[in-house]
């Protein structure tokens, strides 16, 4: 499972890094006279958007981009309880992931298991289409669990948030029907544009990175929506910890 864990860890880091770009410079002085978020300085918008993201009880994060030179897609719904559900596609294969209470469930397609080498082929035959169940607190699962843990994700988001990333506001737009203000910054060949909601809570709605080594689009949605994660049915799982015991 080394390949899948490395991919998911890289994804979690890149998603958090993209979001940090969305926060813009978090320094700043007194608030301007206008109360409209789109009229405020980038520093103020960044500070408010970071606070809003940190306050969310649940959210869905979706990435379609390049990580470590490889195309990757990721979608995960996660909450403060540490439970989550979603899937990641990398190296041509897709793995579904569910963290429910003390257990972690994984289910890969044929291409995913093939990418894991001989161990993956053996697991594929053993599972025969079922979910693999294991303990979430097992040391080998630490990276996987942190990838879908909202608290861990937001902690990564907050890290280094005092840096001045610069940025320039664009004209107001809409993102999936929600009014937003784009903030664009450049770092060498890489251009990052973050879209912050200007109605309701100032959540980061979308981040688009163009150029550079890791272009991609990161979407945030389902803020504070009920996120009830359900474990797969008992008949559809294989508990590998019991086999090992």
UniProtKB/TrEMBL annotation:
The keyword Signal applies. Coiled coil: none annotated. Residues 163-186 are annotated as: Disordered. InterPro entries: TAT_signal. Residues 1-21 form the signal peptide. Keywords: Signal. This is Lipoprotein.
């Amino acid at each position: 499972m080394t390949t899948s864990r490395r991919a998911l860890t890289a994804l979690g880091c890149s998603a958090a890094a993209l979001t940090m770009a969305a926060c813009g410079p978090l320094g700043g002085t007194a608030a301007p006279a206008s109360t409209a978020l789109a009229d405020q300085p980038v520093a103020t918008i960044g500070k408010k958007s970071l606070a809003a993201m940190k306050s969310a009880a649940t959210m869905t994060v979706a990435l379609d981009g390049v990580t470590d030179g490889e195309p990757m897609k990721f979608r995960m719904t996660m909450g403060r309880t540490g439970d989550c559900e979603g899937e990641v596609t990398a190296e041509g294969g897709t793995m579904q992931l569910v963290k429910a209470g003390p257990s972690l469930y994984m289910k890969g397609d044929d291409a995913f298991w093939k990418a894991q080498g001989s161990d993956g082929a053996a697991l594929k035959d053993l599972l025969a289409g079922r979910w693999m169940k294991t303990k979430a607190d097992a040391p080998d699962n630490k990276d996987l669990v942190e990838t879908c843990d909202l608290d861990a994700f937001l902690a990564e988001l907050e890290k280094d948030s005092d840096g001045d990333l610069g940025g320039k506001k664009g004209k107001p737009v809409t993102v999936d029907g929600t009014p937003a203000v784009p903030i664009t910054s450049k770092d060498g060949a890489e251009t990052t544009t973050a879209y912050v909601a200007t109605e309701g809570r100032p959540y980061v709605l979308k981040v688009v990175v163009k150029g550079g080594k890791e272009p991609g689009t990161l979407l945030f949605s389902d803020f504070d929506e009920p996120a009830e994660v359900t474990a797969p049915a008992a008949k559809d799982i294989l508990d590998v910890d019991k086999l090992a015991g």
